[in-house]
Amino acid sequence: MKYDRILIRYGELSTKGRNRKQFVDKLKRTIAKTLEGFPSVSIEAKRERMYIMLNGEKEEEISKVLKNIFGIQSFSPAVKIDRDIEKVNAAALDIVSSLYKDGCTFKISARRADKEFELDTNEINQTIGGHLLKNISGLKVDVKNPDINVQIEVRTEAIYLSCENIPGAGGLPSGTSGKAMLMLSGGLDSPVAGYLSMKRGLELEGVHFFSPPFTSERAKQKVIDISEKLANFNGHFVLHVVPFTTIQQLIHKQIPENYTMTATRRIMLKITDEIRRRKEALAIITGESLGQVASQTLESMYAINDVTNTPILRPLITTDKTEIIEWAKKIDTHDISIRPYEDCCTVFVPASPKTKPKKEKIRYYESFTDFEPLIDEAVNHVETIILKREEKKMEPEMDSLF
User: Fold this and answer.
1) Rg of the chain on CA atoms, in Å
2) CATH match for 179-398 among 3.40.640.10, 3.40.50.620, 2.40.110.10, 3.40.50.2000
3) CA-to-CA distance for 151 and 172, rounded, in angstroms?
4) What is the spatial distance between Cα 78 and Cα 95, in angstroms, rounded to a whole number?
5) Which helix (H) or strand (E) holds 167?
6) Pairing relation of β-strands 179-183 and 283-285?
7) Which of 109, 232, 290, 388 has the fewest CB atoms lying closer than 10 Å?
8) CATH class for the domain made up of 5-167
């Protein structure tokens, strides 16, 4: 017997009380969008569980996708059976026989959500377990660490049987916590910050600053490839590429060298904030970790934040580099991030950047130059790239969102 569906468990969504339906509906839409490449599937969402009907699609391929979707605590390939214990016996025997190898152990884990079913939990365990022992030679029981765990859920409409419990990504469905803009460089930190923010239900759009000819097309492609990895977690990712060469050259001409990094970050934040406003997002995400580099001291962040009242969220603020590297490996952005193509921040970094810049000083230095027309020009010429899960085709749209 082949599995005919995948049973999805909500986890944290189960605690949402009156708002639960909103979260479940959002998760259903995210799953549907992410599974667009599997046209035969259908999705049924209920209060306690969600079911993906496979309708002939390959369970293994769909499971690979589901592992990355936030809001799923765990899921199991399953088969739906009529509420008839003999049919459950037959289905359990069919599935366990296909998994059995010499010396395998098993246990039955029954859960009776419908208390009106004719057998209680212990009786289900004994009945199904006895049937398997009788019909599979060499099979043994191990209730603590079985090779095969036969999970049986008795619900009002049917009985569901599965033998595998696959961990999901956890967290909250994309968009349930609002929208934010991610300042996305080509380094290790910002993709991890984006991943952790998405896990808490934020819908993200990336903002990347591009300074040709000082930064190459290969550096830009690196960020596109990172964005494509982030797209795997909710089906799509929008990347805004900001032309930054003229502004960066002017900063290095007009601002004292040890304050150029502070000025650069301030103007980047202004541009990101304007894109945020136009996209109706509520916050800005950065990959900053306290004390990691000159622009990430508390004094630097205080001076840089001065340009906006928008909430700046820093998921990595207390993490060290080794932790960030482990996260980057987990989400498969590490090998992309370490490609030897510089971004605009590293190309223009001063020899001795100010680690404790004064807000009053950077305001004074900036007052001699009118950056606003150049900021408007950069925002109005953003290149927007829409990436989809594991697809190499991008859909570039110049100025379409502005």
Assistant:
1) 26
2) 3.40.50.620
3) 25
4) 10
5) strand 166-167
6) parallel
7) 290
8) alpha beta
Is there a shared CATH topology between the 5-167 domain and the 179-398 domain? Answer: no
State the helix-helix crossing angle for 298-305 and 260-278, rounded to 10 degrees: 50
Identify the CA nearest to 194 among candidates 308, 314, 64: 314
Per the CB < 8 A criterion, the answer to whether 172 and 12 are in contact is yes
Where do the domains of the chain lie? Answer: 5-167, 179-398
CA distance 212 to 229: 24
Closest listed residue to residue 95, CA positions, set 82, 80, 83, 74: 80
d(CA 250, CA 3): 62
Non-local (6+) Cβ contacts of 217 within 8 A are: none
Do the beta carbons of residue 247 and residue 373 sit within 8 Å?
Answer: no
Separation of alpha carbons 5 and 80, rounded Å: 8
Q: Which two tokens stand for residue 315?
A: 């998921």
Contact 84, 24 (CB under 8 A): no
Range 323-336 average pLDDT: 95
Angle made by CA atoms 306, 308, 309, in degrees to the nearest 5: 105
Question: Strand 179-183 vs strand 203-210: parallel, antiparallel, or unpaired?
Answer: parallel
Q: Of 15-24, 134-143, 255-264, 363-372, give the lowest mean pLDDT range.
A: 15-24
Give the residue-averaged pLDDT of 346-370.
Answer: 87
- pLDDT of 39 above 70: yes
